[in-house]
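ERR on first pass: missing label on line 2. Operator R.T. fixed the label and resubmitted. Corrected input:
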Amino acid sequence: MSFSESSIAFIILTWNSEDYIDDCLDSVEMLQCAQKDVFVVENGSTDNTRQLLVNRAHRQPNLHLILEGKNLGTTVSRNKALRRIPTSTDYICILDSDTIVNQKAFETMATQLKNDPTIGIIAPRLVGIDGTYQVSGRNLPTLPEKLGKASHLPMLEELALHAETPTAPLIGGLQDVGYLMSACWLMSYRAFITIGLFDENIFYAPEDVDYCARAHEAGLRVVLCHDVEITHVYQRISRQALLSTINASHFAGLAYYFKTHGYALDSRRIYDPEKQCVEKREQIRQHWKEDQDSQLLACSKERPMKVFFINPPFKAEHGRFARENRSAAITRSGTLYYPLWLIYAAAVCEDDGFQVSFLDAPVFPYTKQQSLDYIESNGGVATKLFVLDTSTPSIYSDIAFADTLKELYPSAFVMLVGTHPSALPEETLNNAKGVDAVARHEFDFIVRDVARALRDGADPCEVRGLTYRTKDGSVKSNENYPYITDLDQIPWASKFIKKHLDVHDYFFAASAYPEIQMFTGRGCLARCFFCVYPQTMHGHQYRTRSIDNVIGELSYIDTAFPDVKEIVIEDDTFTINKKRVMDFCQKMEETGLNKRFRWLCNARVNLDYETMVAMKNAGCKLIIPGIESGNQQILNNIHKGTTLEQIRAYVANAKKANLAVHACYMVGNKG
Ligand code: SF4
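pass 2 clean. output:
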């Protein structure tokens, strides 16, 4: 794809730039390409820059202004714009406001990027308005070189100048360098996603050095294109009023840079002009070629849209929060449930062709900042849809996390799912100013349809099952999404777990380790008035997967997870349909899976002895009833639908069938 057929996003910062910005933006507007978005971050200019930009934005629809009241520094400012670029962008240009660009430079650089995917950053030569060439690329700095330059001693300055001059040969018009002046960088979108956002620990400089060093560390080339040039007026901000501040922050930035990249004297560990990292670059070339061959990334228009599923952090300082436990908690036993409902929805999206990332923050357990760092370094900026799980105990924290995501990635659609927003959708949305919508009840297809709408440019708020915020700020609810009747069309959670998670991170105290949890059906016929999942998520019909589908997944787990010992069947009441349970047990024996796995399940106290024996023979070791109380009046009051006689018979039969019983009780109900 040539430059003229591609889309490009320009990132420009302004600060007292009234003398230059119009010429710069005029030259950008002259460029011929399929799609152009120009993001300008105005950093609190005291001259007429802001007004110039505002006036211009009225007549230039592709000019997106981010107006700041003060100078945020280069990294924070650029990141604000980078977080807004469309994911369909082919190229990103970091551009100074005092430049004048031209078509030839961009066509040539885009061709170079296309021909060699291992080029991370490319830049043209910079020419001043007096026609003199400016330094456009250098070797990575070292501490002695910086001290030499600062010494103002001619001999040391001479040595420093020599050390920073690029020495790699010029091949095909390109010269590899340690870093490029960030007056005009061109990157492919993919290289940007690989390198990430600017490091906000650096305020002003050396953000360009740091970014190029990170490109090298990722195995990408940083090259100066000698065949083309652009005009760079070279506005020396450092000679203006901010001199002392910038020098101080520059030195702080340098110290941070050396510390972060682990060198001060010898930069060759990161970039050695004599010795290119040929092997790593060949790997990148091959990897990217395979993507192109699979036609996933051959053209940016076909790039899968990214959806990020997040089980948010909560009280990491106290341990691992099991949000999808029936009683969400940080347990003393260390029990951590798989976030299965989130996993199923993510698997549905992945199956539908979306690029899915998944963060289960309580696993590590990550703090809020660690979670945000993870998201940022795993393509947060490319994400179009964030889906966050919730629970009632953590809801304020979940909302705060969602609000922060929206602040960081304002162009992304942020939605909450789970029990709490299903029960209180309007209240949740009214408390969550950064959240665009909440999904009510079972959300697999709601999330998928929202993702499809975002991908196709349709209105995501028209998806059934959503409660959303309108443009005027009011909250509206669409009709419910129907419950999924054919559960065999939902992908297997275990396949998703294999790809995105680690079974060794999860633990269920009543099970052998490691275990995998799964649902073979959804919903519960019973009406226990305290029970959250049937009431808020899956309703009062028991919808089931076919037994063949379940056995198929168990066979997959058998081969994909050789060390998994136990299967936890998490259906509300797996045993409610006797014939289905007997069929399952028979298939377990026929396939020999009863010898491979032990398993456990939730089982109401109306389970009979014959079924218990069949379950035992099929590998079941443990059944979990909700006994709740030894008082019939309380059972009646909570609409349990069971009797003390049933409970006594159940426990006696389980003992006879040699099944262990893990009984659940409640305290505090009215007698
Ligand atoms: S039987 Fe169990 S899952 Fe079903 S409503 Fe009662 S407590 Fe909930």
